[in-house]
Amino acid sequence: MSRFRSLLLPTALAVGVGSVLAAPVAAAAPDAPAATAECDTTSAPYNYVVLYQPRTPQARVDAELTAKCGSRVAYYPEIGVAVASSRNADFADRIGVYRAYSGSREVAEPATSGAAAARAQARTELENEETTEVVTTTDLAAEQWDMRMIKAPQANAINEGSRSVTVGVLDSGIEPTHPALAHSLDPAASAGCNTGAPDTDPAAWAPTTSDHGTHVAGTIAGKDDTRGFTGVAPGVRMASVKVVNDDGYIFPEAAVCGFMWAAKQGFEVTNNSYYVDPGMFYCPEQPGDSAAYEAVRRAVSYSQRQGVLNVAAAGNSGFDLADPPASDPNRQHPVDSSCAILPKGLDGVVTVSAVGYEGTKSSYSNYGTRQIDVTAPGGDRAQLPPGAESGCTLSSVFGGQYGTKCGTSMAAPHAAGVAALIASRHPGIPPQAVSALLRAKADSVPCGDADECTGPTSYNSFYGHGLVDALAAVR
């Protein structure tokens, strides 16, 4: 997941959406107030997520934003979230720091040099973990140990997935001409979301600086008979939903746009191999964070109510999600039990940890009691298949080529592909049921000798309910 941040489903199906709906919403905007000071017309503009009561009329939203020296980029009335642009340094103060937040402004103007250094270090660690290693072997099937681990070849012999099922790949874009992906990519369902507003121009959703989304897509539904490469569910459709900008950041407005697009397009599954930037944790009781947390939470909740199952990567920091650090590793603010990594920390999102070739937790993978739902192959450089030079997973990369990457970013699409097979096998079932079947059909993995792993074989902090099983999914 090059720079990407690389999610908890309650055991009882009724909990997911209900608990999401229980959270309070921000007050509606007052009648349009007059601007209290002259608006800045020369400084660089930044985008913000801004909270309103759901179904607040767009005219009221526009009036308040204009009065506070902002302008509307997008508005999602179903969830009461606007995306606004402003040049004013005090725009969030004018709106209210619990209602407005800009990730791009925080990156561009960090409070301290230490905050910038922390983000740079996090980027370096992720880039090192998910480096692409191009593979030139003519026949790639023998190198797909990850697919054999989850019994994907046997599953494909029974059911490759249905064309009526679409997986939205919320990522850096999918290379549309790649021989393994052209058959499954649906351009009409694809969009770029980096501004916070969906843009269906192919230039907005095609990849530019990162092949991360292309690699993820190949794992989900790739198929290239010439090279012998096959993903988990090659019969389903995929949509490229670009939420990663050219600097590798996924800001709150892009994530909101991505989940709302998935909902409105009727996707059955989304894959989210990232976490929302610039923080690692967002805290609903802290200024700024509150707006970002609530905006993404509402979008995720809405997508679930519209029938979307969201699958996400557990993260590559190697720590216990149930016992997070006291301070955010990426920016200097305190973290407590109310804080969450987005979107994986939200109700109803399926969180996937990673295992290597030997079937044990990858060294970098996050874990945690009641935090991990299932596990899947993400690779591990220390777990080498016999005769192999890389322990990472193989998939599609730029230029119609194939390469290996390691990361929970690579594990999540294996689970998303199996979820797509379940949705294909059981048309029309709700996302909570797909999630329940994904967990129920997983192969239990014991803790073994790992001291940090807690819980029984049937459900533990490293592997959740177990390793996803494609063959069980189609039976």
Automatic annotation (TrEMBL):
Signal sequence, start to end: 1-22
Residues at the active site: 171, 212, 409
Domain of life of the organism encoding this protein: Bacteria
Pfam family, one: Peptidase_S8
Domain Peptidase S8/S53, first and last residues per copy: 163-466
Single Gene Ontology BP annotation: proteolysis
Hydrolase keyword on record: yes
MF terms (GO), sorted A to Z: serine-type endopeptidase activity
Keywords: Hydrolase, Protease, Serine protease, Signal
PROSITE patterns: SUBTILASE, SUBTILASE_ASP, SUBTILASE_HIS, SUBTILASE_SER
Family: Belongs to the peptidase S8 family.
Protein name: Subtilisin-like serine protease
Organism listed in the record: Saccharomonospora cyanea NA-134
